[in-house]
Amino acid sequence: MSRTPGAHDPLLVEHLPNSDSPAEILLAETMDGLYTPYALRLPKGPGPHPFVYIAYGNGGGGIDWLLDRVHRFRHVTDVLLEAGYACAWARYRTEVDLGYEHGGRLHVETRQGMDLMNRAPLEYEDEVSVLRHVAEHPDIDADRLFHLGVSHAGEMLFKLCSQYGGLLRAGIAAEPASHEVLTLGLAAESTVTSVNGLRDIESLEMRSTELARARITDHTEVSARLDGVDIPVLVIGRDTDELQGIFRLTYELLAEKRADAEWRTWDHDVHGYIYPESDQHGVPQVDGVQSQALEAIVEFLGRHR
User: What φ, ψ does residue 195 adopt, rounded to 5°?
Assistant: First the structure.
């Protein structure tokens, strides 16, 4: 019997040790007719369940990347399942440098009976496709979708909200690399280089919120983008991070728009610390700071559930 790609029958089922909640690898059809994978885990009990989309960093890597996350960074999904949330590690296409800045909104029209776009979809639009797909799953409550993103995926939450409102109940942006959303001019930074039209910002330092604010190049555009954030957002920083000024500025600008914006920050030596890693035996290595942060995340989600 043939299967339709993108149906809610899993492409494959990945079993996890000592768990009766496997990861079902599903394919969501993207806006340009391709497919992007996500690994859905469902909690015990009857649905429909609230759902948390889990993302990290840049795109690419496909199903192999996804399966690695399912096992090596399993702990965050175990925590969410225990709290009663369905959840999924998800993958999306590779980031286009300044694609959001230069591309504008995606417009789709019909030519010769098929779609024509003004630009290719971007990585945050693959997130939109997954959210729309999972919203149709019989065990998911379409009115209670949440987003949890770290680093570039934290910025993606704001990109998504600025152009696709009404999808999410609330969101968490941990260590959000929001330099593009905030129109930060980085050309004068000595640590930023550009080769073949691609910026290298791996060595960027912007620990000061005041410095980050001074780098905004288009306050009107930033304001309009943040006007699109129609949900409560918890922004999480990292005290010693070289981009803490950007993380904090993201919160401060959002708080000027929304009274329900929240800020938490902890001191930790790992970028992406809210996703504890498991050792070679599958045992999660979770310290006190990571436990506190995950408890705060679950508490935030619970207040907006």
Answer: -135, 130
Q: Which of 93-102, 183-192, 202-211 has the lowest mean pLDDT?
A: 183-192
CA distances for 220 relative to 47, 161, 225, angstroms: 43, 17, 9
Query: 171 forms bridges with which residues in the sheet?
Result: 147, 233
Q: Could you report the per-residue pLDDT of 111-167, keeping only the tens digit for each?
A: 999 999 999 999 999 999 999 999 999 999 999 999 999 999 999 999 999 999 999
What is the C-alpha to C-alpha distance for residues 114 and 58, in angstroms, rounded to an integer?
30
Report the alpha-carbon distance of residue 127 to residue 129 in Å, rounded.
5
Q: Identify the residue whose tokens are 């559930």.
A: 305
Tokens 């007719």 belong to residue:
33
Domain segments of the chain as ranges = 12-303
The angle, 0 to 180 degrees and rounded to 10, between the axes of the packed helices 219-227 and 244-255 is 70
The token pair at 195 is 């080769």
CATH code for 12-303? Answer: 3.40.50.1820
Q: How many helices (H) and strands (E) does the chain have?
A: 9, 13
CA 209 to chain centre: 23
Residue 218 in tokens: 């288009």
- Percent of the chain exceeding pLDDT 70 equals 98
Report the C-alpha gap between 200 and 145 in whole angstroms: 34
Closest CA to 9 of 45, 51, 40, 36: 40
Nearest to 139 by CA among 203, 198, 206, 86: 86
- Encode 177-224 in three state secondary structure: CCCCCCCECCCCCCCCEEECCEEECCCCCCCCHHHHHHCECCHHHHHH
Give the whole-number percent of the chain exceeding pLDDT 90.
91
CA distance 156 to 127: 9
**Of 233, 31, 53, 261, residue with least CA distance to 144:** 53
Report pLDDT for 6.
Answer: 45
Which pTM does this prediction carry? Answer: 0.95
For residue 203, the number of C-alpha atoms closer than 13 Å in the C-beta half-sphere is 7
